[in-house]
Amino acid sequence: MAERRVFTLSQVSQHKSNKDCWVVINGRVLDVTKFLEEHPGGEEVILEVGGNDATKEFDAIGHSKAAQNVVLKYQVGVLQGAIVKDVDLKDVVDKESNTKEMSAYVIKEDGRSKSLAFYDFVVPFLAAGLYIGYRCLTRADSIAY
Ligand code: HEM
Question: Where exactly are the transmembrane stretches of this chain (predicted)?
Fold first, then answer.
């Protein structure tokens, strides 16, 4: 369950430094202190709205669905008076791990390479057999003479 602690905007505004930074997005109160360094848009833009409601700025960028999921990860509560749909964080984490890309190569064995392996094995034996047979026959001939 996402955090349901209720904060007033004045409480949120106490946290606006790079050592302790909270923002409000769509009624959710987030502690983004640990996210500042990771933010793809840089920490400055978040610090500028630190301690405030940053919904407008967040939406203006057109953040992706992934970014909206990150919001849930840092939620510490909700803004007093805001109506916030509850989302189970477990689902978000699962969704993230399901969307990880994987690359794989399938090496197909075709019929041609199989038959090549067969000839590689059989032909030398056949040749050796013929040679030994020939030698035996010619030796038998020489003894007879
Ligand atoms: C506090 C919660 C925020 C989270 C969790 C967050 C997350 C992200 C993520 C994941 C991206 C990568 C692109 C994407 O997936 O959309 C991104 C990009 C960006 N964000 Fe945020 N963001 C937050 C707040 C903000 C705010 C308040 C601003 C501006 C005032 C902002 C400005 C930007 C910009 C400019 C980029 C684009 C970077 C680029 O494409 O070079 N973000 N953010």
Answer: 116-134
Number of H helices, E strands in the chain: 6, 5
Task: Report the separation in Å between the CA atom of 10 and the middle of ligand 1, taken as the mean of its atom positions.
Answer: 24
Indicate whether residue 21 lines ligand 1 (CB < 6 A). no
Task: Map out the domains of the chain as residue ranges.
Answer: 6-98, 105-145
Residue 99 backbone phi and psi in degrees, to 5: -95, 5
Note the pTM of the prediction, 2 decimals: 0.67
Domain 6-98 has what CATH class? alpha beta
d(CA 88, CA 2): 6
16 in contact with ligand 1, CB cutoff 6 A: no
Tens-digit pLDDT profile for residues 70-127? 999 999 999 999 988 776 555 555 555 554 455 555 556 566 666 667 778 788 889 9
